Amino acid sequence: MTYDQLCNLYAQSITLKILRARSAPMMLSFFHQTFKEKNHTTIPNVELVTRLSDYLVATGYRATDDEIDATGLLDNEDERARKYVEQWSNKGFLRKYPDDDGNDIHELSSDMEKVMHWVSTLQKREFVGTESRFKDIFSKLKELVDQSNKDPKQRIQELEKKKFEIEQEIKSITITGRVQVFDDTQIKERCYDVNRMSRELLSDFKEVEQNFEQITQEIYRKQSERDIAKGALLAYTLDSFEALRQKDQGKSFYSFWQFLMDETKQEEMRALIEKLYNLLEERNIDYKNDRFLKKLKQFLHASGKKVIDANKKLSDKLSRVLSEKNLTDHRKAMELINDIRQLAFQTLDNIPGEEFYIDMESDPEIDMLDRWEMADDKKTHPDVEFPKGIGGNDFSDADMDALFNHFNIDRALLEDRISTQLQNKKQISLKELVDIYGTEKGLTELITYFSIASQSSSHIILETPDPVSLGNRVINMPMVLFTNAQN
């Protein structure tokens, strides 16, 4: 890195601004106690201010006049805490956004996560594991080479080698009756690594989410430019959205999210974590009552969903760009129609001469959907062709009635069905609910399910197609997952 690059980095990097802040020791210790020790990812604004006020009293910390407004030095702790939280949010040390009820909540920014992780590495640890990390490195190197080799013969040789090793281990256990297991040190070492990597994974989500938000902000900025064409803005939005999805970071996240939404994998992870804690207690291994891993799935789901929501925000912005374009075209069309209407009224008192008319050799052919009765030869409209297995050509009254003519929807009944199914499951899809209960109210009932999912932070709507049966039709709809946030 050059001198100029470092100067620019020191001037713009939020991470370095955190380290250089006078209140950094107080700020980092408070965040560690509030977020890390208590395993919180988000905290309401009111609760955070109250906790900071108590922390300022307990530590006796006094602000300097360059930290918060000099006029606020005589304020009480509650007011000082409020100003600190507001200042940290404005500087990017904390993130602030409204929840589903409109109340402000806070979480650590990606820059703050980096600082706290780096500072934690500076402290001397009582236990530093090297054996498990080396084996992890060795295992990843071997996996990287093996899974990248396209030679079938070499791949078969590797699999045969693994097969031989497994067979030898089975023979050894059968003969001796003993199983080689990890000792307490090896268990403790690997448990520490799993815990560390899990916390780092949650921090990584914030960078992915921040990338989506940066693109959204750039779209807003470009939209505010007066001379930018709607087509150029739309092209930039589509290109940015696709580029983010196709980048390594985007591909990795969506693969992870698909894995996390797999109910079988969720149950397997839950069982593994439960067995790990049972093992620690059976061996009397001290893990300082750190139950972070027990809530790992909940944390991963909450953090991952914010990335999905940021993605959805980007899609919504794209939809608004398209809507604004349509509104502009509609407004122009209405202006043209009004101009034509005004010209028509003007000709009422001044009928144009014959030179303004056109003689046609035959009668005009009229084929307008909304003026069909005006035509002498009424042409039947062609049948609508649907893809194979989707839709159909049955337009009987009974079929249409099954689709649309049911507007009295019992929303509470649908919510009760969802709750009933989630008592024994971590999640259930709309398709599964339809398979179980059917669709008594037709298309309107499906829309109500969508409304329930969109108005709750516990449920997810994905862009992945998930066809749903509706009578004798198949409706190609986005995937809707109803989840139990308590599990």
Automatic annotation (TrEMBL):
Pfam families: DUF3375. InterPro entries: DUF3375. Keywords: Coiled coil. Residues 156-218 form a coiled coil. It comes from the Bacteria. This is DUF3375 domain-containing protein.
